[in-house]
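Appendix B, record 7
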Amino acid sequence: MHTPIVKVMIGHRRVGKSYILYQLIDEIRNNEHDANIIYINKEDIDYVDIVSS
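Structure tokens (predicted):
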């Protein structure tokens, strides 16, 4: 995770992608206290106006 390369995680539904992402967020928060983390759940109605281009 310490390289400036975009990581993409794909897979079937309900196989643990979000769980792995939450674990990664926790690891970053514990090891890099000045890290900025933005997590947007696209299934949340609050973010319905965010669309891809």
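Remarks on this record: The radius of gyration is 13 Å. Helices lie at 17-31.
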